[in-house]
Amino acid sequence: MSEQISVADFAARARGWLPDYLPAADPAAAQFFLTATGSSDVEDLARIQTCRALQRKLHDGGFAGICVPPEYGGQGLTPAHQAAFNRELRGYDYPAEIQASTFIPAMALLLEFGTEEQKLRHIPAMLRGEEIWIQFLSEPGSGSDAASAVTTATREGDQWVLNGSKIWTTAGWYGDWAICLARTNWDAEKHRGLTVFTFPMSTPGIEVRRIELVNGSREFCQEYLTDVVVSDADRLGEVDAGWDVVTRWLYHERTIAGGSKYVTGQGNQSTEGPYEAAVMAALAREHGTWDEPRTQELIGEARVLGLVRSALVQSVTRKMADGALPHHAAAILRLFSGMATTRRASIAYELAGERGVAWDPADRTDAQVALGYVVRQAACIGGGTTEMARNVISERLLGMPRERRADSEAFRDVPRGPGTSRSR
Amino acid sequence: MFTLTADQELFEATTAQFLAAHYGSERIRQMRYAPAFEPEIWQRGAELGWTSLLAAEADGGGSISGNGLLDLLVVAFHFGRHAAPGPLLGTNVVALALGRWGSAAQRQGPLAGILSGVGVAAWAGPVGQAARVQVDDTGEHLVLNGAVACVDGAADAHHLVVSAEIDQSITQYLVPLVSPGISLSPLEGLDLTRRFHRVTFTNVRLPTGARLGAPGEGSAQDAELLDVMAVLQAGEIAGAMHRAFEITLQWTLDRYSFGRPLASYQEIKHRVADLRMHLEASEAAAARAARAVGERAPDASTWAAAAKAYTGRHGPEMIQDCIQLHGGIGVTFEHDLHLFLRRAVTDAQLYGTPESASRRVAQLIETPESLVAAR
User: Of A42, A420, B94, B177, which is most buried by a Cβ count within 10 Å?
Assistant: First the structure.
């Protein structure tokens, strides 16, 4: 490590490399799911191919897995190097859409819980853009309460057989591998009967259904698992100790809003589309409303939220790294991100006026703003609800009393709906 | 809270202890009708470094971390935490102006006085668009006429920096407040330890050497000072929020209703989580702005206005919610919360409201060519 490249030199190397290898970002092409309207499956799949190619370029240029050890195909550098690269990356297109779930939580969890064999098998392939991972965490009956999963894995020799259903998976219809939470013991307390598995999406018995969101996005999927056979060698972590993995899983998920050393760029959105204040300002000028004080106030507020979010991410990340704040502080970033995104969606909508109700079909920005308003709350739901973030902040960060639990007996006896009653 | 180095930490600890020893909340409450400026305490603060961080070493100042504004932000934060009295903001803004644009005489006299803690200064910062003071230049001396509606700390200050207009050209002047023709008329105010005055100039004669900086540069200089003021205000607001949050979190743990602590109700927990988020965001915004303005970065004005807009909007609102969580005790004079609300909202409203700061952020947006093309 004594010969580690300095952050400044690394940034300089990135500055020299980027113009030759990565194309400029197209601010008009918002890939953010809140504003994803009108793109076809063919276009989406083409974009994913582009992401794989861009990821391969990053890898070959020495900029993939900057904080990943070299033995797994990374660069073995520090979060400061990753942050410097992210700064240099501004204005360039990069594989934004595959950062989550491939690098967080999947790669991060493999690094923390994987066997040597699992790490060597998957992490280099992820960094080369060859393996896109998806997360099988939520279920139709368990969203925020991830530990109440009922997808069941039954052991048969050195294999496991999985049955159940998962939901809210991004990239479910084109991902290569899945990381999946399943129940392996119904007689233990709910957190103590869970195990995490990995398997390829080509495994027989996985049926994928696309979900349509209110803005037309078909990014999310639901999967049905019927007798899906998984090798015990693909289990991640110990049997019935899956909650240890999930705790870190949820942590990594919260850092998509910023603060992860495994994420390149600004997470899953290379541009913020119509929520970018500069786009709002350009639109206001085009429509002749710029000179109204209220317009400038709103656009200024949108810009302030973006700036404060970046300052907050930087500050909290540094505090978590040097121990001034515990890792639960990532929930502050998740909460802020949800609040700021919903507010900016409302600002963009207010600025649009009548065009937010009925618009010229040729104007995709108006469509994005209008439909983005309808799907606005997704920013406070996906990736862990803001209510859960508030629980983490109040209970874990501030030490306020935990909520009283009604699910501490054997999981099979826990009520799971109005139709179920306690067996004793 | 904003410390990065061991030297800064020591500086912060010393300042925090000093303020805690002298300005407990009971003392602040008592100062309501008393003179709020205590010269001997201020001079000891100057010895700690409160007045020299924005001045160059050549002038007798110097920073701790290399960015004096980031160091001073630590002081502002603790002034906010204590709702402390003292001409911290005005004096430091004037010190910066004198160091940056002052003549040799202005630096050797008034600036040296400020650094030692003996001299105190105030800034009649821009409030509206037009200059409120007119100047006549006879060639031999200057004559000022007009009024500034609201100046913080004018009665305790020896010098006032004010912009005045001649032939549509605005220039800054350093005015001794003892000059004949200056009259101060006290205003009533919210903050218990800040005194505001209307300052009227009636045929105030000054030597031409009273000019601060080049003729016609007054508005540009005011804009630079406004950025520094915005950062310091954001730091004070963040400090006031920090103290209010601390008090409120403890209250929710100590106060029992219906047989359980307030802190055990999820409604209360979620409100407190939001408060914590606004606090962290305000601190981050203030620190980021101090870095940019202290380094005179190209985006310094954007960050300064963003920090002011965010803390100014969310600081007072957050403290209001702290009061709500306290119930009736929160709106009594004997409780401490209002001290921090007064300080936060005073900083939020002065030298531009949060709304005007938001508009400034919008006006500073540069539209990339690619966006114009994409439309």
Answer: B94
